[in-house]
Amino acid sequence: MPSFIDRVVLHVAGGDGGNGCTSVHREKFKPLAGPDGGDGGHGGDVVLEVDPRVTTLLSYHRSPHRQAGNGTPGMGDWRRGTDGADLVLPVPEGTVVKDVDGTVLADLVGPGARFVVARGGTGGRGNFSLASARRKAPGFHLLGLPGQRHDVTLELKTIADVALVGYPSAGKSSLIASMSAARPKIADYPFTTLVPHLGVVEAGEVRYTIADVPGLIPGASQGKGLGLEFLRHIERCAVIVHVLDCATLEPGRDPVSDMESIEAELAAYAQRLGDQETDPSLTGRPPLMERPRIVALAKVDVPEAAELADFVTEELVARGLTVLPVSAVARTGLKELSFALAELVEAARRGGPASLPGSQAGAQRPVIRPAAVGSRREPAVATVRLVNHPVEGRVYEVRGDKPERWVLQTDFANDEAVGYLADRLAAAGVEDELVRAGARAGDTVLIGEVDGGVLFTWEPTMTSGAELLGARGSDLRLEDRHRRTNAERRARYHEMMDGKEAARAELRQEAAEGIWTDPTAWEDEEGTS
């Protein structure tokens, strides 16, 4: 099982929002006291946060599917649902977040840096929050929105001031072990180093980090060896150190040709990077091929290697490079190398992002110029076009953030909720856009994408004439808010008593005239007969 993972595909999902509640408040002597359904809770967010204690993406390699908590539904008595818990995923410093197209979404640098990779859905509104002066008794609620779902790629790019590059078994691991407290695996066979190693070096008052990158071979930028997999770890370094093996016995190799091969691979890899990784105004660093270099001629404790180092030093210096012979075994030249690297690192830190031309840190503040009065025009809420549906044939497709969100919030099992959706679409001008597109009553309309959208037969909203049963969302039982006075109650009581006495008098008169008789007399007559 791998123990170091620096690239994973993460499937994240924000929490779903809870549905609203439809409820009517009831009290003693007040069975219909108005709506009291609460809103649903919001779904939790999925957040990436830099944690200095995390050094690898191994946990996400084993469990790539992560989801935040869902919001709970609203309840009666104005009780709101509970929000879902946020899911905070710790990542190492230097993690780059990319979407499926390779676009960089975030570059997490610095302890505590956070990025919301998937937002939770909004909770649905209850019928209490949907009530208004014109809609006093809504008998429906809105559904909670689903959380965002994304597939993102996490790439770990080691943040180090100095990167050691060279052929396999060139002495990079021995060098970092001698200069710092890092303890990488050291052996006499190629590709001993399988993962990058970090070490901290102190040279006087300067403290910097140094990274040991797995060995590079010709063709590393095309995927040969381990180079392509770990070349990303040198993108952020300020100084590149070429560790050249002067004691190699392989035919056709020498320090100069080794450095030229490594430089060719670095140049090929730099061409593969996009503008987001190479543009100084975005990264705050000079391009990869323009960063300072130091050549470390390794293994000079071997007599033949020392002679070869003296032979090639003049040629490398002529190219404008700083050349230092070093030996990790004899600890030769390590102090000179550490102080030379410290000087270059300090120069790079002084010339940080703020000093680069066009960088974001040194850029001028943006100037916001509002539109002139009278020339403002609200953009259309939705766009309508005629498309071919695989099942329904030619349909009118409605696309827009608001209409698609309103459809997700609608409970289509509730006729009043469907009517509320129709009102919202009409008020937003969607029906006007359908008329402009040539739609007529009875045509099929699709809101959303072809796969997963909502199809319905369009019937234009009728605005003439009043509804016989009252406006949508109203209850005639709640319309009468008049409270009778004592005089009105007394008058009503006397009116009822007078009506009862008039009815009794009429019955007595009908009985005297013989129009009807007492039924008990009929039972006596039947019994005697």
From TrEMBL:
Cofactor(s), by name: Mg(2+)
Tell me, what's a Pfam family for it? Answer: GTP1_OBG
Among the GO biological process terms of this entry, one is: ribosome biogenesis
Q: Which residues form the Obg domain?
A: 2-159
Q: Which residues bind Mg(2+)?
A: 173, 193
Q: Which residues belong to any copy of the OCT domain? A: 376-460
List the PROSITE patterns hit by this protein, alphabetically. G_OBG, GTP1_OBG, OBG, OCT
* InterPro entries for this protein: G_OBG (IPR031167), GTP-bd (IPR006073), GTP-bd_Obg/CgtA (IPR014100), GTP-bd_prot_GTP1/OBG_C_sf (IPR036346), GTP1-OBG_CS (IPR006074), GTP1_OBG_dom (IPR006169), GTP1_OBG_dom_sf (IPR036726), OBG_GTPase (IPR045086)
State the SUPFAM superfamilies in the record. Obg GTP-binding protein C-terminal domain (SSF102741), Obg GTP-binding protein N-terminal domain (SSF82051), P-loop containing nucleoside triphosphate hydrolases (SSF52540)
What EC class is this?
hydrolase
Q: Where is the OBG-type G domain?
A: 160-346
Which keywords has UniProt assigned to this entry? Cytoplasm, GTP-binding, Hydrolase, Magnesium, Metal-binding, Nucleotide-binding
Q: Which GO terms describe its molecular function?
A: GTP binding; GTPase activity; magnesium ion binding
Q: Name one GO cellular component term.
A: cytoplasm
EC number(s) per UniProt?
Answer: 3.6.5.-
Please tell me where GTP binds in this chain: 166-173, 191-195, 212-215, 327-329
Q: Where in the cell is it found?
A: Cytoplasm
In terms of one coarse class, where is the protein primarily found? Answer: cytoplasm
Q: What does this protein do?
A: An essential GTPase which binds GTP, GDP and possibly (p)ppGpp with moderate affinity, with high nucleotide exchange rates and a fairly low GTP hydrolysis rate. Plays a role in control of the cell cycle, stress response, ribosome biogenesis and in those bacteria that undergo differentiation, in morphogenesis control.
Q: Fetch the HAMAP family from UniProt.
A: GTPase_Obg
NCBIfam families noted in UniProt: Obg_CgtA, Obg_CgtA_exten, PRK12296.1, PRK12297.1, PRK12299.1
Quaternary organization: Monomer.
Task: State what protein this is by name.
Answer: GTPase Obg
Protein species of origin: Actinomyces howellii
